[in-house]
Amino acid sequence: MSDLAKAAIVEIILADYVATDAAGKGNLIGAGVALLGFEPAAGVTSKFGAWISIHVPTHLCPVEVPVEIALVDASGELVSMPGPLGEPQPFRVAQIVMIEKPTVPVPVAQRDHIGARSQVVFDFSNGLPLVPGGLYELRVRIDGDDATTRSYPFGVLGAMPPPVIG
After folding, report:
1. What's phi and psi for 51, nearest 5 deg?
2. Which of 61, 68, 115, 164 is deepest in the core (most CB within 10 A)?
3. Could you give the CA distance from residue 98 to residue 156 in angstroms, rounded to a whole number?
4. Which helix (H) or strand (E) holds 86?
5. 90 preceded by cis ω (within 30°)?
6. How sure is the predictor about 31, in pLDDT bands with cuts at 50, 70 and 90?
7. CA 155 → CA 27, 48, 110, 134, distances in Å?
């Protein structure tokens, strides 16, 4: 395992609304979603977002961090989504995230204590075509190391049972 993988702290939060501001702070509304609603007419989940924070010690910066995000089902298999031409494609995104040393004018000891952080935001404002009643995990892996994989389990609400009368 690399020094980066050993030292990094990865956080994942699902929320009704997720964005980052110009200062790099996460803005989350309805954070901690565990169950997504389902819109039967549209065949998709309710809108939501994913906020992923990667924190590394300052002495490792600047650093390029390979980040992989995947959506898996309850059996651990990658979930397929319709691609641009309608063909199924696995939901996996990989990118390099650059984490710079903080430029905040604070004493070095404080800057080293605070470390450096980068946020990655996914906005699913149109929902996702997931199975009602399904169980899923959003998995994040950094530096190509399975030991650094973090996951956020969630589910999609199924149809409400009909009322019991009598």
Report:
1. -115, 125
2. 115
3. 33
4. none
5. no
6. very high
7. 23, 13, 40, 6
* Cα–Cα distance measured from residue 47 to residue 92, given in angstroms and rounded to the nearest whole number: 19
Contact 75/133 with Cβ under 8 angstroms? no
Kindly list the domain boundaries of the chain, sorted by start residue: 3-156
- Supply the DSSP symbol for 78: B
- Compute the half-sphere exposure of residue 82: CA atoms within 13 Å on the CB side of its CA: 9
pLDDT digits (tens, 9 = 90+) for 146-164: 887 999 999 999 866 667 7
State what percent of residues in the chain have pLDDT above 90: 64
8 Å CB contact between 30 and 13: no
> Tokens at residue 17, please?
């609304």
Go through the chain and tell me how many residues it has: 166
Report the Cα 29 to chain-centroid distance in Å.
15
Question: How many C-beta atoms lie closer than 10 Å to residue 32's C-beta?
Answer: 10
Q: Where are the alpha helices (DSSP H) in 38-161?
A: 108-114
Residue type, 40: P
